[in-house]
Every structure is written in C-alpha cells, then in structure tokens.
Amino acid sequence: MTVIDVSEQDFEREVVERSRTIPVVVDFWAAWCGPCRMLGPVLEGAAQKREGKVVLAKIDTDANPGISRAFGIQGIPAVKAFKDGVVVDEFVGAQPPATVERFFDGLVPSEADELVAAGGEAELRRALELQPGRADAAVELAGLLHRRGDEDEALVILGNVAGSFQADGLAARIRLERDEELDVSDALRALDDGERERAVDLLIEAIPQAGERTDDLRRLVVAILDDLGVEHPAAREARRRLATALY
Question: Could you state, in order of their start, the residue ranges of all structural domains in the chain?
Fold first, then answer.
C-alpha cells in the first residue's frame, strides 16, 4: 500500500501512528486546485518508486478542514513528511520532479545506507563505491581489514575519509601498532578489552615519550573520547589531561 486516502477520522491512525514504523508523506490538496493536480502524480510516482519504504497519504482539505487548521495549512498543495509521529520535513506549492525526488530521498534509507546496515565486507565495499569517503562504511570496513591483518588496505581506505575522528583514530592505531620504538600495547589491549578509560590514561601517559608519534596518540585518544561521548563523566577530565600533556 503506497498511496492511501485519509480523513480527519483516521488521520491519527493512518498517518501519525503509521509513521512510527514507516515514513508517511501527506499531500494536502483540493479538487479545485490546479497546482495540486500537477503535483499529485509526481508525488505518487515518487512513492511508487519507494514501494514498501514510504507511504503517501492524500487528504482533501475541503472535506477535512479541521486537519488543515490543526497543521496551519494556509496554501495548497502543502506536503508534510511524518516520522516517529512528528513532522520532519515539508514544502508548499507545486515542485519540479527533481525536488520531489530529493524530498523523498531524505526520508528513506539510500542503497548505501542499507548496505552499511548489512555490514558485510562486500556490502561495505559496494557502499564505498556508491559514496566514496563515507565515514561509517570506511571505518567499519577498515576495522574488518585491520582485524584480519590487511593493514595497508585499511590505511588506504581510511585515507579517503575527511573529518571523522573514528577514521583518524583507527589509522593512528594502525601506525602506532607498527611503531617498533613506542610500545603502547598495554593501552591497545585495554581498549580491545573494553577498558576505554584505562586505555585513555595509558595513551596520555605515553605522550612525553612519543616523539613523532605524538599526534597519532592524540588522534587515538580523541577517537576514544568521541566514542565515549561528551556527557561521559571521565571525558572532560581526560580532555584536560590530554591538553596538558600536549601543550
């Protein structure tokens, strides 16, 4: 069921509640509205392309004035997208097909999103073909390669990612593991055992002896703290100690 007609009586069930499991795009229209007749087929076509991933609900504003007032509809066609029971995006007026397609794309997982969610090596590689430099796919794939010993390829993949603490941190870890002069094996073992706070402590303690690997230690600590989150009780103190050790 891709396109449905809704009314004031079933709007709560068919739109608000349904949107908790699948995005629902609502087309507020009226029979006398010329732009509505232009936009309607475009919306229906976009919904049909995403069969099973989105529902298009059409509501006649003349027959359902209460809903129009409730959502502040002042001009039609008006289109609102619902997710998890609330409006997450909207537009007013007839829009060109390309704009409508982008609107729908923002509501449903892309092919790359679905591949990353699957998480297998082949899927992650395909996701990176579709979106080169995508951080979550690159970090996941590089982590898989790192664990099986394909470190050179992991570094190449991570090198294509910009602005990701996790990608920078994993690349830094690989370089630190390869360094024969700086031994941070206890810190990395703690990290692998889930003892992230201890790993941070040991990495910060190693900074005075790190030499040219100082920045890699910083990158790895920052990645761990990013993973912990800004609200973690140990993160703020660790950031202070990191800054002191560096500067």
Answer: 3-105, 111-246
